[in-house]
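Lecture notes, part 5. Sequence design as translation. It can be helpful to think of inverse folding as translation between two languages: the language of shapes and the language of residues. The source text, in structure tokens, appears below.
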């Protein structure tokens, strides 16, 4: 494999053609903007005159010049867009090929509960969206932190084989089946068990269970929210949190692996 995939003809943009189109558009723009619209009190009409030598140009010629400039600018933008879309599609194919190859060579790094969706955005800008099968994640008591190592490996591939302009955005994970789980398992089984089995459950105002959006990632947050702090001692709260974690573990939830108990309100 070439040390720089951008040397491949399929990833090479037609820079010279794009530059010629942009230069032509810029020249037409300079010529167009060299004229200004002025009111002629003698003829009582607007006319276009050159900013430097005051030379007049007819309205028809000015409109034709304006049309030529707009056409040239649109043509340059269309070719620029086409070249970037072409490159993005090819870069996407290379990233997918790397993931397939890396998964075969290092299957232990890619858990069964994880799938990756690769999308092209623009040029060498690629996004990867992890999708987590919640049922399988809980069966294996898997760690969503495993995604970080996969992200790191893909970024190494991008940085090694593509130019500095290449960009990889790893989006926050989606948890497939989370809505049904909250409705059928958390609300009907887990929450009633906590309120029934945990000592001093009267201290609990509610149980937070949500997907929390952070700056660059998403995580599941589960924790008890307590009533007025003066009603329950710190020791009682600590004991409640410990018992809640014990019950959650029976359902596959392991703090620090597939959920966080942060109590910060966001």
């Amino acid at each position: 494999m070439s040390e720089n995939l951008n040397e491949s003809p399929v990833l090479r943009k037609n820079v010279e053609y794009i530059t010629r189109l942009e230069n032509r558009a810029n020249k037409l723009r300079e010529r167009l903007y060299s004229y200004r619209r002025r009111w002629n009190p003698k003829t009582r009409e607007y006319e276009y005159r050159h900013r430097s030598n005051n030379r007049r140009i007819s309205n028809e010629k000015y409109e034709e010049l304006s049309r030529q400039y707009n056409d040239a600018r649109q043509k340059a933008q269309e070719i620029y867009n086409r070249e970037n879309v072409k490159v993005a599609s090819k870069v996407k194919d290379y990233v997918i090929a790397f993931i397939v190859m890396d998964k075969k060579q290092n299957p232990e790094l890619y858990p069964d509960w994880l799938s990756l969706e690769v999308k092209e955005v623009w040029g060498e800008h690629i996004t990867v969206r992890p999708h987590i099968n919640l049922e399988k994640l809980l069966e294996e008591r898997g760690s969503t932190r495993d995604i970080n190592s996969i992200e790191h490996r893909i970024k190494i591939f991008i940085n090694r084989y593509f130019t500095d302009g290449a960009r990889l955005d790893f989006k926050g994970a989606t948890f497939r089946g989370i809505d049904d789980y909250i409705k059928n398992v958390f609300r009907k089984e887990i929450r009633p068990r906590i309120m029934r089995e945990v000592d001093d459950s009267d201290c609990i105002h509610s149980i937070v269970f949500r997907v929390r959006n952070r700056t660059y990632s998403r995580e599941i947050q589960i924790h008890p929210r307590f009533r007025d702090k003066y009603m329950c001692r710190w020791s009682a709260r600590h004991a409640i949190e410990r018992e809640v974690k014990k019950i959650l573990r029976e359902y596959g939830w392991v703090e620090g692996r597939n959920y966080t108990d942060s109590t910060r309100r966001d």
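The translated text above is only one of many valid answers, since several sequences can fold into similar shapes. The CA atoms of residues 161 and 228 lie 57 Å apart.
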